[in-house]
Design a protein that fits this description.
mainly alpha; Growth Hormone, Chain: A; Rossmann fold
Length: 538
Amino acid sequence: MQTNEARSHERERLIGCELRAAFNAGGAAIATTLGMKSEGESVASAIKPQTLRIVMSSALYWAWIFLLYWSPLLLGSGWESLYAKGAAFLGSATAFFIWFVVVRAGRRSLFDRVFSRMLPFVLTPLAGLGALVNALAGPLPLALLLVLWFLAGFGAAFILVRVSHLMFREGQENTSVVMFVMLFVSCLVAVFASQMPISSVGAAVTMALLPVASFSFVQVRKRVPSATDELDDIDAPESKSRVFEGDSPSRRSFFVSLVQMFFYSMAFSFALLTGLYSSSGDMSSMYVWFGVFLAGIVVMFYGMWFHRRVKVDLMQLILLGVAVVGLAPFALANVLPAEVRYASCVLLMLGFTSYDMLGLSHLLSTISAQDVSFTRYFVLGRFGNAFGVFAGWALAAASLAATSLLENQLVAQALPLVLIVVLTVLVMVCSYWGQWGSGKAGKDAAAVDSVGVWRRSCEDLCDAFGLSSREREVFALCAKGRDSAYICSALYISAHTVKSHVYHIYNKMDIHSQQELISMVEQRAEDLKKGASQESKG
């Protein structure tokens, strides 16, 4: 196994050089797209600070995820590594599930104030630290190793929520470009890190520091965002209660996409793990990075040019076909030529990563359009992905164990293919189910439009009367009819501070009661609707 890994080391080095050259050639164009001030400026000084935060936090996070889950950097390619990755998958799925339950129970502040801001710094380095102990003092007991990886996966879910929330607030204007640059930079980081010897001290230290660095970028403080962006867990009037009630098309579409992502993630995880662990360590991780880089190009081109012509559902079906082409051959990694395995790996990573990034972007857009709780619906949406990856790992582990015990080689080779076909059919059934209910979204569109009008009304009034950032937050809650106690809890401020802000708002707007404020918002909303109606008729 070590000989095979050494043989692929030179290939990885050459491709890494090509990727680094491509980065140097395209850096200026990327910086211009993200906010270049002038052609003579350097890349580092030309990118907007908030965009740089998003790119760096996301890139370091995904580089760590790719290295942790889809490379043998920390523990090699043995059964111990496979079990540890399964523990990390389970940890992430458990974190998303627990967070959703806590938020649904109304205890979101517990996670906001303590766990989600502390746990990533404590938990995510544990996988790297465990590998460091392995390198310095000898192998750890398997049970302890699994616990460390489970906790690392648990903390990784919290970083993903925070990184995505940062993109949700500040990066929606150019999400596709940000995702491309993020994947590009993450590939470069992964390429450099993968050059380190497997299970070495340097690899362990790198894997301990990457998630901490990623979360540090998220934690950097900046200006307070506007109220209508900040209060994503509080609904505008008549938004969540109608948009996601009963069996509405939006509710059905959301849960269909969740189930579809579950089966798609299961198929991807099963095929990739089967291929990686069936190839006896000869499968170079460089082809994983190349597939991820191509996925970034697909996401950028779709987001910038094709999204108006091709719907997300159709694009995801196309990506499903691309992934299927790579699924079947990759499951037979132990009997196919190396070139076929490499091509299958690239197609598989291209299809799944593009699908996952488009799904993530679509999830953020849906949460924004429906004006529902970011935390609640994001963790629920990503739970389908996390649990699907873990389920795929369980199938892969069971399949690998079964094929090692089966004497009939034909049956052993057919088992992964049968499972892949079944999972692919389930994904296609979910896609058809989602399209079946897509023609009933008229009421949902009206509900979403009313939410947008309400937000614009608040923003117009806040701008017209020159309200400060904190006054805008209080204004938004007052416009929703919230009382002083609710505002104190939502903004974490005292009753005296709320009273002071309300006093200044009333003075600036020359009103005397909350009802007058609500009436002004409603009147402004009616004016906006009439204006939009006249424009459409004209």
